[in-house]
Input
Amino acid sequence: MQAVKSVVILGGGTAGWMTAAALLHRLGKLGVTVTLIESSQIGTIGVGEATVPAIKRYFESLGLDAYELMRATNGTIKLGIEFDGWRHEGHSFIHPFGRYGIQAGPVAFHDLWNRLRAAGESAPLDDYALGAQLARAGRVFLPPREPRGDFEQFDWAVHFDAGRFAQYLRQFCEARGVRRIDARLQEVRLHPEAGHIEQLLLDNGESVSGELYIDCSGFHRLLIDGALHAGFEDWRHWLMCDRAIAIPCVAADPVAIAPYTRSRAMAAGWIWRIPLQNRVGNGYVYSSDHVSDDAALQALQGQLEGEALAAPNPLRFRAGHVRKFWLKNCVAIGLAGGFLEPLESTSISLIQMGIDKLLHLWPDTAMPPGFAVEYNRLSIQEFERIRDFIILHYCANHRAGGELWRYCRDMKLPDSLNHKLELYRARGLIVQYESEAFFDPSWVCMYANFGIEAQSWDPLANLLPIDELREVTRRLRGDIAAIAREGTTHREFLRLAGALAVT
Ligand SMILES: Cc1cc2nc3c(=O)[nH]c(=O)nc-3n(C[C@H](O)[C@H](O)[C@H](O)COP(=O)(O)OP(=O)(O)OC[C@H]3O[C@@H](n4cnc5c(N)ncnc54)[C@H](O)[C@@H]3O)c2cc1C
Output
């Protein structure tokens, strides 16, 4: 058995460089070599600026300092996502990276909250999450090492300039001996009988071979689908948005940086706002069945808070994934593997999951098929779990007007999501499957904020006198609000952490 030692990555976007950096860092000393082919003529997708807390694990795995990386990429802190107008116009809530309230012994906070709600208590769930309150206050501090309760447990992620992030990783890889080729792929040579990839022919006349090929060619899917015909599982019937336009702009207030992403529901989709140190990223994700490209562009331009800093970047996509992420001697990572709209900023974390699985299942040159089967099983599960969570944001809406929103309320849901909804409605139970990316607090956040009501709850929650429960939670809300006010302003936090960019 000879472990794979030579890897060829096609694509130098976030996926290509993240993969190259991880492989070189983890396997370079063992003699594994990486060749990365990218085309500066084609370029990268140019979006992908909001992350989830898992990104910090990636930084750590490479020995990178998060603040240094933020300095290099105009990065900011992200405590969660504000959903504005998703339930209905005028309603807003934050999906924080963190927990809510306090447990009462074995009784989960959401059971207490459900009981309080049934007794007429109207305080929103946001009031019980320190992460959400900090975000609303525009303030930041790091999660305490020894939290006094669930309410003090929160986490953070980053927003960054995707181009600069790829650039940073490229330098990291170049220092570790990556071979980078700037050329366009022209032809893929397959083995005539076995059908695996033998050679990539480039427009500069070079031909490149390796033992393992990683397709990071983005939506082009040149290897996994173009050459190997993996096929595509299309989820448009559940996730109708298939286009986006992105425009960065000057921030209305360049000093006060919001420590969260904002997602504002629109007639035919939603608009993101991602604050960086030096600008704001904006984009309208929409369904082409429900709005024209021109009207979408106009709607986005109407929402820009400052002067546009670049021409509109129009993008087309399909929700879903390739049927096989690993096929013969090729593994697809990043957009080449699949895409779920960026509502919960999950694509970069899916790249991480792809890299982690590949490292775990690192093959020998015989490429035992069982490894691919396992990789594919896990990848499909990961996509399906995130898919269900994103669908929940759409199907639970109460928005007036808008054909898209009506469609989403009425559509037939995946059985896996129906099962979760049934058990939550019946008893406030949170069902978790294997490979979940979102845990109990995230599901509670959506159920509660979209007004999905639990008919009942853990009966142990009834053992606490309701007046006592009201009093404890009233004090808790006050404490959380007071602690949030003690945070530092976001810009000052970045300065103190050494994360402010020099330019
Ligand atoms: C509208 C939108 C918003 C998004 N927002 C987020 C977000 O907030 N958070 C998040 O986590 N993710 C987000 N994503 C996803 C994120 O952008 C991607 O996951 C990430 O950028 C990785 O892209 P990639 O590297 O797979 O593909 P790309 O960036 O498209 O890179 C593809 C690479 O392949 C190369 N290539 C293509 N064809 C050839 C060829 N013939 N020859 C040689 N090279 C070739 C290109 O030059 C490029 O280097 C968003 C995506 C979209 C569409």
